[in-house]
C-alpha cells in the first residue's frame, strides 16, 4: 500500500460528539465509560430492565445541522452527516459549509460502512404497515430503509460528487472501507475520501442479540478480554476520517494526523456446515500478518493493538491468542469497546479514530494486556462473527 494520509476526523459517539472531546475521553476511560453507559432513551427501562447499552447522549440535530432539511432522516444519517461535516472542516476542505482550498465537490467521495444501519427504519415502516395500514407509510421516510441511503444523504448534504460506496460487512466494514478507498485513490477516481461509518442502537437489534444469548445482562460479568465475561454490551457510534494520497496531502500543506500503511483481511469457514458463527484465531492471525506485510512493518515494531475485544468470550480468546502468536505477549492490547460497547461497523471506525489519538500522544487504554508506551505504529483489528477478520496498520505522521 502506498501511504495514505489521515487529514481530518469526525466522531459522534457515546463518549463525545467532536474530536477534541473524544481525545479527552480516551485519556480518562473510566469517566468516559460511565458517561457512555448512563441511562439511555433508545430502549425502554420498563421493557428491558436488564439492558445496559452505550448510547449517544446530548445529540441535538437542530443545533448541529440547523432546523431544516433533515426531518425525515433516520438517526444514523444525522450522526454521519455531523461526523462528515466535522471531518471535512478539520481537513481544511470545507469551512462554514463551503469548499475551500484545492479540492472541490468532484474530487471528494465517500467509502462508508454499516452493518444494520437501516434496521430501525425498516422496523418503523413495518410496524406502521402491520398495526395501521400500508397506506399510512410515509414515502419520505421509505428511502431510509435502503442500506446505503445514509451515505447517499451525506453526499447530498455535503455536495460530494466523487464515488460513493457503502460496504456492508458486519464488524469488519469500516476497515474494509479502507481498501475500497485505496482502490479508488489508486485509480485516481477522486483525491480524498470520507472513510468510516457506523451503526445505531435499536430495539430489534437488541432483541436479536439478546435472544441468541450474546449479551451480558444487568450486573453479569462483562469485561472485554476477560475469561469470565458472560457476553457483550451493545453500543452505537460513527466516525469518518478524511483520507488522501500522502504526497498530495503534503503538497497542499494539510496537517497529517496519521498515515495508513497497511491493510489485511482473511476468512476461515466453520469446520462444520451446521455452524454459522466461527471464532477463529487462524483468520485473525492471517489478517494481521497480511496487514503488517502490506505495511512492510516487522511485528516487533508494533506499539499497540486497538482490538475488537467485546466481552464475547470465545471471540475474545481467539483474538488474543492470534495477537500473541503474531505480535507477541508483551504488546499493549487496548479494548476500547469497554468504553462504548459493541458498535458493529462503528466499532472499526471508532477504533481507527482511537488509534489516531494514540499515535498523537494519548496513552492507549483501557488495556487488557501489555504495558502502554508512546506509539509510532498501531494495528487496528475487526473480528466478524462468521470467520471474517480485517486489520489496518497506522503510523504516526
Describe this structure in words.
The chain folds into 2 domains: 255 residues, Peroxisomal Thiolase, Chain A, domain 1; 134 residues, Peroxisomal Thiolase, Chain A, domain 1. It has an 11-stranded mixed sheet with strand order 5-4-6-7-1-8-13-12-9-10-11, sandwiched between helices. It has a two-stranded antiparallel ribbon with strand order 2-3. The model has no long low-confidence stretch (mean pLDDT 96). Helices cover 35% and strands 19% of the residues. 56% of the residues are buried. The longest helix is centred in the N-terminal third of the chain and has 16 residues.
Keywords:
11-stranded mixed beta sheet, Peroxisomal Thiolase, Chain A, domain 1, single chain, 13 helices, 397 residues
